[in-house]
Amino acid sequence: MTYVIVGSCIKDDACIEVCPVDCIHPKVGAPDFETAEQLYIDPQVCIDCDACVEACPVDAIFADFELPEKYDYALELNEQFFGEESTAERTAA
Amino acid sequence: MARTRARVAIVGAGPAGAFAAACLLRARGDAEIDLFERLPTPWGLLRGGVAPDHQEIKRLENAFDRQTLKRGCRFLGNVEVGVDVSHSELMRHYTAVIYATGAQTDKSLGIGGEELPGSWAATEFVAWYNGHPDYRDLNFDLSAQRAIVIGNGNVAADVTRMLTLSARELERTDVADHALEALRESAIEEVIVLGRRGPAQAAFTSAELRELGHLDGVDIRVDAGELELDAVSRQWLAEQGTFTARKNMELLREFAARPARASAGAGRRIELRFLRSPVQIRGTGKVEAVDVRRNEIVRADDGSLRARALDEDVETIGCGLVLRSVGYRAVPLPDVPFDDRSFVLPNERGRVRTPDGEPLHGVYAVGWIKRGPTGILGTNKRDAEETVSSLADDLKAAALPQPPNPRREQIDALLAERKPDLVTAEGWRAIDGHELERGRSERRPRVKLASRDELLAAAAVARKR
Fold first, then answer.
1. Which of A27, A83, B130, B236 is the most exposed place for a label (fewest CB within 10 A)?
2. Angle value at C-alpha B66, between B61 and B71, nearest 5 degrees
3. Where in chain B is the domain with CATH 3.50.50.60?
4. Are A75 and A4 in contact (CB under 8 A)?
5. What CATH number does the domain located at A3-92 have?
């Protein structure tokens, strides 16, 4: 499984700070941080620890199997963000 | 060196002020913070801007409360700095003053007919449906069948949704009662959203755009022809376009491919039109139509993509309501420097400077009044971290002198004399409790008190206890 961030994300960075495996991007200061409309979880790296869910002040993070129907697009969206060439380069560093 | 106990006034209890208070308490746990707010209620646009159908985002108020008011930061509501208490009076009572007043007016279109009844700033409509006490008496005429929304940002998306949501859906939100009543009776069937630039440059987040295409019983229309990008936009999207811009194009193509609903008049419609600029609002005594011209995208000398009029042809679109949403603008504050070209307090990393570039010791800025009206809620967190780090450095370097009236009782005495109906955190909790209780009885998240008198009366209950 993985956790997924939905469109109500406000880019409070509390989740980035608590993530033990740095799987939430873009990071503060990254070139695409300002233009990103939300933060995304890399499903390949997420270890399902729940820390980000606790930290999110607007409850915008869900386990994939508990994703409300209105956010059903979000699983693919998070994955696609990491499929972008620029993201792959940056997160590999 | 002895650390002096910092007394800090934050002016404006919106997201920028709240993030600054929270951040300052983390950096300097001993700081005494007073959060000034001209309304009787805190959290600014979180309460008065974020759309009523986005309740999940409003949960941020719990974090603000936990990180500020519950940690000893005081709320001083219903006090307007510059009117009830001056900047120089604040400077005599506090070690530092942080301005977090936001951007309180909207940009105008600068076209004829903008002042006609029925032509509004989208922000006025937003403040009205969110129960801002200064806007409750506005009278939006929703009797025409068509409304035009000008702009392609998230405020434009919000007002478009609010005009098309069903009464049943609105009843599940904390939309102000007066607005709920008016929207229930609304005759609007179609909302046309005009974007000056093309679909690739639309400023909607893909989350907001997706929502427009998934409203219950609402059709979305996009002309597939308008999604055929010009060479400049195509190149920009491929080389510099953001993830959001590419997602937006995918969504728009999906909307354009949807079959038109067979039975016209069965529900409301949203139509998105791109590369269109309004050039004149027409009507006798009230809005009746908007004249629109077509644009093309050109690359400006600075590399940015601009809209330029394509030809002289004018299309006239009939409508009874125009909401313009082309950006916010900050207004100058009494006795504080203001940059009237960028519409911000001139500052460096949050330290306010005089027009000559000299630092104005003890004066700081955060949020939209510091950086201009950009970013989303969380952007203010990093912004606050920068300003608070400047302030913390100045405190550490003992660069800020002790004010002449440094005791809390001194500002309290002044405020008691000027504002006997000041609203404290306890007063706000009484308002909040009252609104939530009414919400529970009506099965809504909250039923807002939307007049200053009602808000002050609810707050006064706490004062009497």
1. A83
2. 135
3. 107-327
4. yes
5. 3.30.70.20
Region A59-68 average pLDDT: 96
What's the topology of domain B107-327? FAD/NAD(P)-binding domain (3.50.50)
Question: Which tens digit of pLDDT belongs to each residue from B51-61?
Answer: 999 999 999 99
Q: Characterize the bridge pairing of strands B351-353 and B276-282.
A: unpaired
C-alpha distance from A6 to closest chain B C-alpha (Å):
8
Q: Domain limits of chain A?
A: 3-92
Least confident of A81-90, B69-78, B150-159, B306-315: A81-90
Residue with token string 């696609």: A80
pLDDT over threshold 80, residue A87: no
Question: Whole-model pTM above 0.90?
Answer: yes
Probe site for chain A from B201, B243, B377, B382 (most A CB atoms < 10 A): B243
Nearest to A10 among B60, B62, B382 (CB): B60
Res B428 pLDDT > 50: yes
CATH fold group of domain B7-104+330-422:
Rossmann fold (3.40.50)
